[in-house]
Give the backbone structure.
Amino acid sequence: MIKKRGTYTYKPLEVIGPENEFSIVSQELKPLPISDQVIKANCGRMVNFVELPRFTFGKEMQMHVIEVKAKQPFQSPRIFEETIQEAVVTLNAFLEEKFHANLLGTGMHPLLRLSETGIWPHYHKHIYEEYGKIFNLKQHGWLNIQSFHLNLPYGKEKTGIQIHNVLANICTYLPAVAASSPIYEGNIGSNVDNRLAFYKINQKEVPSITGEVIPESISSFEMYRNEVIGKYSRDLACLGVDRTLLFKEWVNSRGVIFRFDRAALEVRVMDEQECIKADVALSCFVRATARGLINNNAELTPHSVLVSDFNEVIKRGLEAKVLNPHGSTARDVCQHLFDVAWSNATEEEKEYLPLVQKRISTGNLSDIIKERVLRKAQRTTLQEAIVNVYSMLIKCLANNQPYF
């Protein structure tokens, strides 16, 4: 997402590079594993990504998921919202006409059974085949997760290390406002962020790939390449994986990773939201908070504390009891981070940040979905309540309307 502009890269935090993942669903909310059919129907042949003037869309590992990317990263949050919403509208119109289908946001499909989707069988399938030699891909941590990835440019090495370590402190608490996966397989899950709970363990056979999700503090690119990329690559090599997965930066599954090919840091701890405006708001929150912590030369929290707090946040969201010096709950810490963001935000970012403040005050999307489903289930079945609420979320995505 963060490509070179002329002969130099973007300045640190200058632009936002989003990657969005959406389920393809029927009008009755059934997951439709037809991403290859959608691609072929659109461009007449089988490719990984379809290039349109302002955005691209294409495959993910899961056959019921479509990924949307911008052609160029955005300096303006408003242009981000306008462009990716154009992608949603364009794809929804095509899906409705050709397949009587729609796109759905949120971090997990609430009804999907693992037998109802599959793994991409076309070009690049060898990557998934190599993963499948080591890991059980038929689990929710692989087949039923939709995240919103955010790429931020880092500039030179010194700045990149600084931003990486600051993002680790932000991403520990970010799921408290970004969780949107309360339900899977038709039941309320035991975590506020069930996507991340599954994500934590989907590669448990090689723990060095995911680490503790919250990345360790680093002091140089050399350290990162040796102790992070080198470590999981050596572990994979010992298990007989071929070079497809060895010494690749994108194999790293921590919540923040370096993408040296883009001169960017990629944030992976956010669930996909219900609409593009909410994704933009989270992007503004992350970027403005990172800018503020760097400007303030803020003291960073020890990694062991971050990991402990992160695990609590996944379980309990905003109500999580934490060890951070800025508050006893995740809500307290998120409010502190919001204050930092607001004090260091651009005027455009301030147009979107109130949405994050409302999440902090009234609950994340996961909280709201769970509350609405349980309320409706008092008058009908849980299944019908889920379909009712998520049908509204389909409309939220189509109309770019936050759900409160």
Confidence is low (pLDDT under 50) at residues 3-7. The radius of gyration is 20 Å.
